[in-house]
Amino acid sequence: MPTPSLRTENLTIRFGGHVAVDHVTCAFQPGELTVIVGPNGAGKTTWFNLVSGQLKPSEGKVFKGEHDITGQSPSARAKAGIGRAFQLTNLFPKLSVLENVRLVVQARRGVGPRALSRAAALTDIRDEAMGYLESARLADVADYPAAALPHGDQRKLEVAMLIAMQPDIFMFDEPTAGMSVDEAPVILDLIAAIKKDMAKTILLVEHKMDVVRALADRIIVLHNGELVADGKPDEVMALPIVREIYLGVGAEDEE
Amino acid sequence: MSVSSIPATPARRIPVGRMAVYAIVFGIGLCLAFAPFLFKDVRAAEVAARICIFIVLVASYDLLIGYTGIVSFAHTMFFGLGAYGAAIALKAWGPGWDAILIGGGAGVLAALVLAVLIGLLSLRVKAIFFAMVTLAAASVMLVLASQLSDITGGEDGFTYQAPRLFSPAFKLFEDADGKVLRLFEVPLNGKVAAYYFVFLSSFVLFLVMMRIVASPMGTVLQAIRENEMRAEAIGYKVVAYRTAIFCIAAVIAALIGVVRAVWLKYTGPEVALSFHIMIDILLMVVIGGMGTIIGAVIGVVVMSLAQFYLKDLMQVAADATSGFPLLPDLLNPDRWLLWLGVLFILLVYFFPAGIAGTLMKKGSVR
Ligand SMILES: Nc1ncnc2c1ncn2[C@@H]1O[C@H](COP(=O)(O)OP(=O)(O)O)[C@@H](O)[C@H]1O
Ligand SMILES: [Mg+2]
Q1: How far from B31 is each of B25, B41, B47, B295, CA to CA, in Å?
Q2: What is the dihedral of CA A66, A70, A71, A73, to 10 degrees?
């Protein structure tokens, strides 16, 4: 086996007595898209927060490649190539759509000696940001404040910001939640395009069965904070425990 | 597809509000630039110089509270460090540029060191704790200034002389008879030089701040204010940025403190350190509009004119209404603070985002 691009080892977090993520050990390879499923409250978002650094584990470790990054800040992990989009839209609401993405590009590329020039004059950063907006079909609303966008466009912006990070590890947390049927394909196409790059590792929390079937190379199942199943989509979906806990909440498909 | 879901607004409306704000600020800038020739009495010169200084002080505070969302009560402390640094050196070594440079430089350096310490030690904690730490630091500084009265003159403060260039007797230009040259009747003496020292220092510092907020860092600061967690998640070290802007604001406040000390030739807690000044700064930044920088210009002018001239205005109004019942009593100049309060409440009511902030929203796409 090559070195996994991402690995968690006994990753655990307790909130008071409640164990939200319970000794989760798993590894991910470049070129692999893993869908993470599990009912609401299973600990998917919390596990993401532990990987991208918003939460510190009570126990266990996170490795990026060979490096133990458990002690690193979220900004250091972002710089190291771990990128994250959020389940609850998490934008800079009063800044324009373009500025939201420009900030991401600026964080990744740095401005070096141009720190004192006008932000508006950094056309290379602006143009790159516009490119991401175009691929997310947001170019027309680039000048609107992010808060003025309808929900579906905010979700697209959330994803555009993650893509603008150009990470090695992409973490999508229910990217199409609450989107209309005709809007979701924009996001799924973007994810499919990333998947073509065999150097990237993609983690995707998603409930919609058609999406899972179309994209997943592998599925892992979280339940009450524990990793209860891990394998090829067909195998995992056939497991009795999965049918019970996951298909039992199939009502969420209509969200 | 995405546009159809946005309320039908033309892509860009004419930003009339923004243009109005720029026009007002430009007008104020012109008045300040030519103040010695436009307003000839002594009090007007004092008001104009104070306005210049406070614009810088308030704008630098806006970098913190408006741009980055940092609440600090230590801003006058940094202002005072600059002022006392220059003042103590001017007193000890006599009126020379070396005293201003070294004493003021020491004050600015002290401000920077304190800002780094406060920033690194406490910008990680919750905003309320940070505010408390700054409050404590500012209180300690105030006590120190009154206790070390041998050096600081205690509560009374102390006077000293400014360089000869700034003394009223100094002639900038002489005519053929050796008398001071006049321009539009105004003698070009050291008083004019002193005013332009204040004006140009303020102008340069203000431009520096305008550039900071327009720079790539300026956007990051706004991002931190808007959503600190996301700013960190896309790769910005939030604590480093917050510490940096806290230090920049402290240094600017200290620099303009030096200017204040040179202009006034007097430094004491009341003009350089007290919490009254902190409250004035807060009121001015709110009236002008937080997170706009140029709002500082409007906020300072409105508040300063009210503070200096409301009494006069009320005297006039009281005299004019002397025939009526009650009115002259209400308009008695002794009640000026009451009316200042009313003015403040009205301004906040009609301009919830401050004068500049509220106007700039009018007619813009935002
Ligand atoms: N900051 C927190 N404090 C306390 N409990 C939390 C916190 N974050 C998450 N939890 C709990 O952890 C569990 C897992 O939540 P979450 O990770 O959001 O689930 P999922 O994303 O799988 O729906 C839930 O029971 C939730 O209430
Ligand atoms: Mg979740």
Answers
A1: 10, 15, 12, 17
A2: 100
**How far apart are the C-alpha atoms of A167 and A80, rounded to whole Å?**
8
Q: Could you list the beta-strand ranges (E) of A65-139.
A: 67-68, 82-84
Q: Give, using CA atoms, the residue closest to atom 21 of ligand 1.
A: A45
- From the number of C-beta atoms within 10 Å of its C-beta (0-12, 13-18, 19+), residue B7 rates as exposed
Give the ligand whose atoms come closest to the C-alpha of residue A175: 2
Nearest residue to A107 (alpha-carbon basis) of A136, A78, A135, A128: A78
> Which residues are CB-neighbours of B280 under 8 A, at least 6 positions away?
B54, B303
CA distance A82 to A70: 13
pLDDT digits (tens, 9 = 90+) for A153-192: 999 999 999 999 999 999 999 998 888 888 888 888 899 9
Contact between B273 and B97 (Cβ < 8 Å): no
Whether B243 and B236 have beta carbons less than 8 Å apart is answered as no
* Domains of chain B from N-terminus onward: 33-295+355-361 (1.10.3470)
* Residue ranges in chain B assigned as alpha helix (H): 16-33, 35-38, 42-62, 75-93, 97-122, 127-147, 149-152, 190-214, 216-226, 228-233, 238-264, 269-272, 275-288, 295-320, 327-330, 336-350, 355-361
Rg of the Cα atoms in chain A: 18
**In this structure, what token pair is assigned to residue B357?**
């902030």
Of A75, A92, A137, the CB nearest to B223: A92
Domain range annotation of chain A: 6-95+167-254
Give the type of residue at B130.
Answer: F
How far is A221 from A232, CA to CA, in rounded Å? 11
Which residue in A175, A170, A168, A110 sits closest to A136, CA to CA?
Answer: A175
CB of A94 within 8 A of CB of B290?
no
Q: Is the pLDDT of residue B7 over 50?
A: no
Place of tokens 């999406």: A211
Collect all residues of chain A within an 8 Å Cβ-Cβ radius of residue B217.
115
CB A179 within 8 A of CB A152: yes
Q: How many C-beta atoms lie closer than 10 Å to residue B105's C-beta?
A: 17
Query: Cα dihedral sign for A74, A75, A76, A78?
Result: positive
pLDDT greater than 50 at residue B76: yes
Cα B258 from Cα B261, distance rounded (Å)? 5
Question: Residue B350's closest CA among B358, B342, B361?
Answer: B358
Query: Minimal CA–CA distance to B238: which of B75, B113, B123?
Result: B123
On whether the CB atoms of residues A33 and A202 are closer than 8 A, the answer is yes
CA B116 to the chain's CA centroid? 22
A6-95+167-254 CATH fold: Rossmann fold (3.40.50)
Which residues neighbour A147 within 8 Å (Cβ) at sequence distance 6 or greater? A91, A93, A94
| Residue nearest atom 2 of ligand 1, based on CA coordinates | A15
Cβ separation of A93 and B227 shorter than 8 Å? yes
Q: Given an 8 Å threshold on Cβ–Cβ distance, is A115 in contact with B216?
A: yes
- Copy the structure tokens of residue B276: 């009254």
The pTM (predicted TM-score) of the whole model is: 0.89
Residue A54: the pLDDT is 94
Q: Encode pLDDT of B252-280 as tens digits.
A: 999 999 999 999 989 888 888 889 999 99
Contacts of B47 (CB under 8 A, 6+ apart): B39, B304, B305, B308
> Which tokens belong to A254?
């209509």
Q: Which helix (H) or strand (E) holds A157?
A: helix A151-164
